[in-house]
UniProtKB/TrEMBL annotation:
Subcellular location: Cell membrane
Keyword DNA-binding appears in the UniProt entry: no
Protein name: MFS transporter
Family: Belongs to the major facilitator superfamily. TCR/Tet family.
UniProt entry keywords in alphabetical sequence: Cell membrane, Membrane, Transmembrane, Transmembrane helix, Transport
Gene3D superfamilies assigned to the protein according to its UniProt record, in alphabetical order: 3.30.70.100, MFS general substrate transporter like domains (1.20.1250.20)
InterPro entries: MFS (IPR011701), MFS_dom (IPR020846), MFS_trans_sf (IPR036259), MFS_Transporters (IPR050171), Sugar_transporter_CS (IPR005829), Tet-R_TetA/multi-R_MdtG-like (IPR001958)
Pfam family, one: MFS_1
SUPFAM superfamilies, per database record: MFS general substrate transporter
Membrane topology summary: Multi-pass membrane protein
Transmembrane region(s): 21-42, 48-68, 80-103, 109-127, 139-161, 167-186, 214-235, 250-268, 280-298, 304-327, 339-362, 368-388
Major facilitator superfamily (MFS) profile domain mapped to chain residues: 13-392
Length: 459
């Protein structure tokens, strides 16, 4: 009988791994709302270097995300995660001791070298059953979003007390805490092979890069994080010009985020009811365009900035929550890990490009230049979004099908595709498993089990 709730091991794994992931992302996000202000104290200050320091972690994350995920399959998840957290701690210490923005950037880049996202997700997959894995991943995803929201509030509050150097020492301490949580709370598991729903597979990457629908998603997450990082090169100083001291920015972000979430939740509900994700995604891109266009009229007006940021985070939060769901539904059966690896790489690369480009544009064309830069990216994405189609509402499953010849595997896949609700069937020899995409409302699980039973008994 299928269990519909997480067991004790899955609950422990979900919340402990979510804590490790969230702690690390909090450390990366914490300086975003304050760096543009505190960086002015460094002798080599320039808007360009502020952007480099903000986005530097994204470049190293983008380069190492997929390789370290694959490494975790060979040497184990925990060694890669612990090693990544140690490097993250070292990067935080380098930034804390830095006497120039260049060294802060070096420290931020070193923080990003500890690219452990794929290893954490793979460990979560190792510790959960197929039917419960989406719940575990959802808990981890929510924790990442919560870390970003907390950073916008805690960063200014803590920065006002301990300064920028103190924030980096604090992030080093969170890295130590992450290691302790991992060692003490995350259950041990023997890694036997790559889980294609959580880890990238090198042989699939080239093919997935050419997948038109996935290409649209990867472009979208690149643009989303590029404009976010670019705008944070200037938002803190805009708030200062509007009359908000840096330590009070927390009380600006808190109600802004709360209002945007309240507006975003009904959008999520509506988009999921009638399979109109792409239309709502397009509307959210338009919302981002509207929010940034309104900055032209904001000037030093606190009211206009509040309105602009509420509208911006409404669109941002909806898109951030929607794209991973679209990725899961669009990625070919058994290729979610590879598709996610490319998606994450695009996300971090966007953060790097947005930081560097935003800093350069601010240095040469002031805040209005950043707004134009972001609007151009969003308009390009808006046009690209018309290439997207609403995917079918499907769920990914995998079933063990060992010791099959290629002919039998092809025959089984063909038979599975005749079963009600089965949309895709793909046998992977390396995993000795068949990956399915099914419409849960129409899925005939009994018929699939009968086919598999006949296969195992040789009928």
């Amino acid at each position: 009988m299928t269990q519909h709730s997480l067991n004790k091991t899955e609950r422990k794994a979900a919340f402990s791994l979510a804590s490790v992931f969230g702690i690390r992302m909090l450390g990366l996000f914490l300086i975003m709302p304050v760096l543009a202000v505190y960086a002015q104290a460094y002798p080599d200050y320039s808007p360009l270097l502020v952007g480099v320091a903000l986005g530097a972690y994204g470049l190293t994350q983008a380069i190492l995300q997929i390789p370290l995920g694959m490494a975790s399959d060979r040497i184990g998840r925990k060694p890669v995660i612990i090693g990544g957290l140690v490097v993250f701690i070292l990067g935080s210490i380098v930034a804390a001791l830095a006497d120039s923005l260049i060294m802060v950037s070096v420290g931020r880049a070193l923080q990003g070298v500890g690219a452990i996202a794929a290893a954490i997700l793979a460990l979560a997959a190792d510790l959960s059953r197929d039917e419960q894995r989406p719940k575990v991943m959802a808990i981890i995803g929510m924790c990442i979003g919560l870390a970003f929201a907390i950073s916008l509030v805690v960063g200014p509050l803590l920065g006002g007390v301990i300064g920028l150097s103190g924030l980096f020492w604090f992030t080093a301490a969170t890295g130590v805490l992450g290691i302790l949580v991992l060692v003490m709370s995350v259950p041990d598991v023997v890694t036997t092979s790559a889980r294609r729903e959580s880890l990238p597979v090198a042989s699939e990457l080239k093919k997935l890069l050419k997948h038109k629908q996935l290409w649209c998603l990867n472009t979208g997450i690149f643009v989303l994080h590029a404009i976010l990082t670019a705008w944070f090169v200037t938002i803190p100083t805009q708030l200062q010009s509007a009359g908000f001291e840096s330590q009070t920015h927390a009380w600006f972000y808190l109600p802004t985020l709360a209002a945007s979430v309240a507006l975003m939740v009904p959008m999520i509900i509506r988009s999921s009811r009638n399979n109109s994700s792409v239309q709502w995604l397009r509307a959210s891109i338009a919302i981002l365009i509207l929010s940034l266009a309104s900055v032209f009229y904001a000037g030093n007006s606190a009211v206009w900035l509040v309105v602009a940021l509420v509208v911006f985070f409404t669109g941002f939060n909806f898109i951030e929550a929607s794209l991973p769901s679209l990725l899961t539904r669009i990625a070919p059966a058994g290729s979610k890990g590879s598709a996610s690896g490319i998606y994450s790489t695009s996300q971090f690369l966007g953060a790097f490009v947005g930081g560097v480009a935003g800093g350069w544009v601010l240095q040469n064309y002031q805040t209005s230049g950043i707004v134009v830069f972001c609007l151009i990216l969003l308009l390009c994405w808006f046009v690209i979004s018309f290439l997207m189609k609403n995917p079918e509402s499907v769920t990914s499953l995998s079933v063990s099908t060992p010791n099959l010849t290629k002919d039998k595997a092809v025959s089984l896949s063909e038979q599975l595709l005749t079963v009600a609700g089965v949309k895709e069937a793909r046998w992977v020899e390396d995993d000795q498993a068949t990956y399915l995409k099914v419409d849960k409302k129409a899925y005939d699980e009994k018929a699939v089990n009968e086919l598999l039973g006949a296969l195992r008994t040789g009928e």
